[in-house]
Amino acid sequence: MIAMYDSGLGGLSVWRAVRAALPAWPITYLADQAYCPYGSRSREEIIDRALKVGRYLESQGATILVVACNTATTAAITAMREAFSLPIVGIEPAIKPAAAMSRTGRIAVLATEYTLASERVQTLLDAHAEGVQVLRRAGHGWVEQVEAGELSGERTRALVRRVVEPLLGENIDHIALGCTHYPFLEPLIREVTGDAIRLYDPAEAIARRVADLIQQHGFDSQGDGYCRFITTAGDGGDMSLRLPQLIGLPYPVESVPLA
Ligand code: DGL
Q1: Which residues of the chain have pLDDT under 50?
Q2: Suppose 164 and one of 14, 156, 192, 249 were both cysteines; which one would form an S-S bond, judging by CB atoms 3.0 to 4.6 Å apart?
Q3: Is 112 in the pocket of ligand 1 (CB under 6 A)?
Q4: The whole model's pTM is what?
Q5: For position 227, which CATH number holds?
Q6: What is the number of domains present in the chain?
Q7: Is 232 annotated as a binding residue?
Q8: Which residues hold substrate (predicted)?
Q9: If you average pLDDT over every residue of the chain, what do you get?
């Protein structure tokens, strides 16, 4: 089974890509909504959640674990790799391809404050964005809007415009989406940028990485494609309402508090 987790529903943007690439694989997706958003939490808290979630998913039969959250990857992937022996795939902002493709020599990365301030992003910038000006911007309030299923209302539009409009005068030609919630706001981002600016969502690259690892490890496809969805908050009712909206399909949602 492929196990995936995020602070909430954002990782479903990665789920879509993994599901499309590996339709026969069972996937268990856990939304740690009791602790969402991670972006305003401390490193210690995010690591503590990562270890609890990882242990639970391992107990459910995970053969590979996808951290479908940039913030959790940034804070906790090293600790997770030390704690668990199963292969772990993390996600990070697509700064490398965005910088490599830039003609104007100016790009932006949108992510949580936590991710933007992290050493991991600094390392990516140092390694892959030499000579490229990278503007870092946090999508304030965006995660909460996606969690609430508010993907197109006026408040969400205003929150997106507040961040994206000022970028129009900056001569950037690429935006790396460095938070897995943000691809769900792509239509609103595009309303502002039009086609002149290219958006990079790393979800498909993550799906390819998962497929490669499965092949390298010789894991069996386990054929039935059974999907489970779990939340750590409430009774699952809210999340089950969101699934058709975010992934186009209804599924039952289990509640596992993981306190
Ligand atoms: N979806 C997450 C990310 O990719 C985290 C959002 C949050 O919980 O702050 O960074």
Answers
A1: none
A2: 192
A3: yes
A4: 0.97
A5: 3.40.50.1860
A6: 2
A7: no
A8: 6-7, 38-39, 70-71, 180-181
A9: 96
